Structures are given as C-alpha cells and as structure tokens.
C-alpha cells in the first residue's frame, strides 16, 4: 500500500517535470521566433533605408 503511494507520487512528479520541460521548450521556441522576427524587421529597415538613400542620390545629385 505504501509502496503504491510512493510509486504513484513518483509518477505524478515525473509527469509534472515533463510538463515543465515542455513549457520551457515552448518558451524557448517562442523566444526564438521573436528573435527571428526582430532580425527580419531590422533587415527590412536597413534595406529600405539603403534603397531610399540610393534614390535620393539619383534624384538629388
């Protein structure tokens, strides 16, 4: 009886740990997606800025 309770408690603890690990992994994925979006945004801004500067040079020089 006592062994069963201890085993059940151990299984519950393992499930909790798995759930926490899954949540941590999801958070890492979300963070990675955020970083990718930030990098893309920065790249787009730089590209737009370069294109505008190029056009300014053509029209105003």
Account of the 3D structure:
The longest helix is centred in the middle third of the chain and has 59 residues, at 2-60. The chain has one helix at residues 2-60. Helix content is 97%, strand content 0%. The relative contact order is 0.06. With 61 residues, the chain is mainly α. The chain has one domain. It is built from one helix and no strands. The model has no long low-confidence stretch (mean pLDDT 87). It starts with a helix and ends with a helix.
Q: Provide the succession of SSEs.
A: H
Q: Poorly predicted ranges (pLDDT <50, ≥5 residues)? A: none
Strand content: under 5%
Mean residue pLDDT = 87
Helix content: over 70%
Number of helices: 1
Taking all Cα atoms into account, the compactness measure Rg is 26 Å
Distance between the termini: 89 Å
Mind summarizing the main beta sheet? none
Structural class: mainly alpha
- For the secondary structure, the number of strands is 0
Q: Overall 3D geometry?
A: rod-shaped
Domain count, please report it.
1
